[in-house]
Amino acid sequence: MKKYIVAGFLLMLFLLSGCGDPVQDDLLDYVNEKMPSLGKEEMKIVGKYDDVTGPNYTDDQSLYDALKAEIIPEYNEFIKDLEAVEIETDELRNIHEDYIEATNIQASAFLLIVSAIENQDSTMINEANEKLNTARKMMREYQNDVKKLAKEHDVKLEKNKDEKPL
Fold this sequence. Notes:
Blueprint: H1 2-17, H2 22-50, H3 60-83, H4 90-119, H5 122-152
Helix pairs in contact: 2-3, 3-4, 4-5
């Protein structure tokens, strides 16, 4: 009789463990395991872009060389890694897909800047800047959507000073 009680109890524990929140589990794995290294990688690449644009801009050739030699190849590799992230739940997968879309828009803006420099076309630069603005807006929406999903599933997100905040 004891064997059946123990077996029944273990089966009950197994069934109860399956009653957890799959979105919560997926989100915890996502923010703690899958995304931190990718966030650091993206910050490193975008930092290289920041080093040759805005107040750090010196000339077209420096920007062109940085984009062709480092930024674009590294960002494309980052996108491949981002696309390889496996996500179990539809709710989180949809949010992640939005992030991938934003990074692809940003990557296309980088390519457009290269073409603009090659063709000395300021119209293309304006178009690239619009794409960059769109990508930044989408990335903010991604961060807000992750926060909203976390709140809905009782996941507390903490900012790490070394990473892009979620």
